[in-house]
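Whether sequence alone determines local backbone shape is best considered at the level of individual chains. When preparing material for the folding task, we compiled for one chain both its residues and its backbone structure tokens. No coordinates are needed to read the tokens, only the vocabulary itself. For completeness, the protein is quoted in full, as a sequence line and a line of structure tokens:
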Amino acid sequence: MRVQVLQHVPFEGIGSIDAWLSSRGAAVGYTRFFEPSPALPDVRGLDLAIVMGGPMSVNDEAALPWLVAEKAFVRDAIRAGVAMVGVCLGAQLIASALGARVFPNRQREIGWFELRGEAGDDTFRFPERFLAFHWHGETFDLPPGARRLASSVACENQAFQLGPNVVGVQFHLETTADSLDAIASACRNELVEARFVQSEATIRAAQPEAYAEINALMSELLGYVTRDDVTRAAPATRGGRA
């Protein structure tokens, strides 16, 4: 399996996805947009693209011109049939690349909050109710032809699927204790008290079971978009509380 990870800041890595890729012997390349002269590969031969998060907006093309090239890569990869998972900013990038509007959500959503899965025919199925880690302030309209997969009280469009193998999620199923520490340490200035912004202490109080459950759900999602028989043969246990 040949995989390309698009990473926007050093403190938002792939978390639990790393173990999933390693267990399958994947050949993983990285495009790190925070480094000088980031290079994007030819989409031909790619099996999976993972588009990660970051604090910037997809609308910052004037200040961050590499966003133009990244969106073109996303479009080309989707047209070529490459499986793709977008996380937070990554989901917004997929939406924007396909012509959908990305804009500030009515409120920030930072912390461990419940979501509602929306079952559909021929789509990935999130649990009817599940807990996940969030850190986002923007949201998106659904791209043309996409199906919504999840929503929350704070944000209507939390996840979508386009075709058989492209899924974008606003929330962070890849989060581990280490990756949470990295983003909380780098972005704690955003933890301003609000209805859907938890305190740093509350965020860090999540129990190991909460991480295990979202990481299992991420593994199931990766297995779904790549049609990986190992993952599909052993569905993740779903649900949980922080």
Observations:
- Residues 230-242 have pLDDT under 50 and may be disordered.
- The chain has one domain: 2-233.
